[in-house]
Write a structure and sequence with these properties.
The chain is of the alpha/beta class. Helix content is 35%, strand content 12%. It has a three-stranded parallel beta sheet, covered by helices on one side. Helix 2 links the parallel strand 2 and strand 3. The relative contact order is 0.29.
Length: 94
Amino acid sequence: MSILYLDKMTWEEADHLDRQKSIFFFSLSPIEEHGPHLPLGTYFYGATDMLKLVMQNLEERESCLDVVGPPPLRSRGASRRPTPSRAVDEFILF
């Protein structure tokens, strides 16, 4: 069907996605020192680029699916971010 991004959707749009035909993707990676010449987010950037390729490949091969990518994640220390909506909780729990 299409590639969507969670941060660009309203909670109503997320809630109306077909749960049998939607896949949510989230990438995880460490933020760590790589020396003075590389940014702390080196692994994060690599994981994000790889995730985009996986999502594009899946969307091309399985055009009946909605492929939903993650919002850009930014953190300030150990603070916790609230879940965007009840709909996302339901997708994650299934």
